Amino acid sequence: MNLNNIIQTEFKLSKDITYLNHAAVSPWPESTSKAVIQFAEQNTVLGATHYPDWLKVEDRLRQNLATLINAKSTDDIALVKNTSEALSMVAYGIDWLPGDCIITSDEEFPSNRIVWESLQDKGVSLKQVALSKKPEDNLIAALDSKTRLLAISSTQYSSGINLDLEKLGKICKQKNILFCVDAIQTIGALQFDVQKIHADFVMADGHKWMLAPEGLAVFYCAEKTRSSLKLNEYGWHMTQDLYNFNNKSWQVAESARRFECGSPNMLGAHGLDASIQLLLNIGMDKIESLLLDNTRYLFTLLNNIPDIEVITPQEGGKYAGIVNFKHKSKDNDALFEMLWNNKIICAKRGEGIRYSAHFYTPKELLSDAVDMIKRF
Ligand SMILES: Cc1ncc(COP(=O)(O)O)c(C=O)c1O
């Protein structure tokens, strides 16, 4: 099937809406809906009779996630509840010493700030660096001998700025600083390579750019850091010998399964599996190129409206799928309300309005969504 056919078959959004909210919660492709429906029907009629087949789906999902982010092995991949849970696993797994410092930006989504602030009573401080014009340089300048961890979003949820993770990861490696990347606004939108960026930890829920249901996230934990991360959740599923219930002596799994304490989210796994298969079948290189093309198209259209200021940086490499803009003189809350009243599904973030189109979003819809702004 060619790409246009795939897009037509898979994306069946109502013609009544213009969906520009992939940075919030994405619609599901048809194959994801079908996988979830079939799983529900099978549960109704057969219960878990085919559990071994479900485990195969889970294995395939782990393998495909490893491929998607170029992890060395599926052993580096844990399936967890959401991005925030994975961040908490890192925050409460590190053996902090009083005086340790964490560096982050001053524009992180609350999940990537609150979790680090919560470590204050352990004597751990958080420095929030302004990204401004030279984000990577500003972050690097803040790293000092007290820094144990750099925790950063690959793409900021509000401004949409996309960072040079390779540059940051290299410096962290040189300085022996742990590198933790909240990649929920990038994975599924752009190609992503955990090895190239020297990440210790990467986390991303499936419901944004990966086009999957909420409630199942990938947590990448590099082998070199895995055993040093203290565990805070225990149960049968995180043991090395997980199906040997009679074994009274147990050991923690060598792999990142150690972070999965109990029964998996099988329903979510069936959904996420179908979505990831779709992304890989199309190819992340193609998805990235189409998505960036849509982002640039939005930039061009918005730049042509004198009253609109585009907040997202527009230099190549500095953006992904998020386009944030604001009206220079009128009330942006009112503009946002008008857009929603006209079924432009978008978000109000920071000082501006966030449009987030995916690779499959037709250009006509993008120009309609920008034309609507001119009517305000
Ligand atoms: C950058 C970023 N991190 C984390 C989250 C929250 O993710 P989760 O609900 O999977 O914990 C969001 C949600 O918008 C986000 O944009």
Which helices and strands occur, and which strands form pairs?
Layout: H1 3-10, E1 18-19, H2 30-46, H3 51-69, E2 77-80, H4 83-91, E3 101-105, H5 111-117, E4 125-129, H6 135-142, E5 147-153, H7 165-175, E6 178-182, E7 201-205, E8 217-221, H8 223-226, H9 266-282, H10 284-303, E9 308-310, E10 322-327, H11 332-341, E11 344-345, E12 347-349, E13 352-356, H12 363-374
Parallel strand pairs: 1-11, 3-4, 3-5, 5-6, 6-7
Antiparallel strand pairs: 2-8, 7-8, 9-10, 10-13, 12-13
Helix pairs in contact: 2-9, 3-9, 4-5, 10-12
Describe the structure.
The chain is an alpha/beta fold and 376 residues long. The chain is 38% helix and 15% strand. It has twelve helices and 13 strands. Strands 2-8-7-6-5-3-4 form a seven-stranded mixed beta sheet, with helices on both faces. α5 links the parallel β3 and β4. α3 crosses α9. The relative contact order is 0.16. The model has no long low-confidence stretch (mean pLDDT 98). The structure holds pyridoxal-5'-phosphate (PLP).
What characteristic shape results from the CA principal axes?
A: globular
Bound molecules: pyridoxal-5'-phosphate
The major beta sheet can be summarized as: 7 strands, mixed
Strand order in the largest sheet? 2-8-7-6-5-3-4
Q: How many β-strands, per DSSP?
A: 13
Report helical residue fraction.
25-40%
Q: C-alpha Rg, in Å?
A: 21 Å
Which structural class matches the secondary elements?
Answer: alpha/beta
Order of helices and strands: HEHHEHEHEHEHEEEHHHEEHEEEH
Low-confidence stretches: none
Percent range for β-strand residues: 15-25%
Give the helix tally: 12
Quote the distance from N terminus to C terminus: 41 Å
> Please, what is the average pLDDT?
98
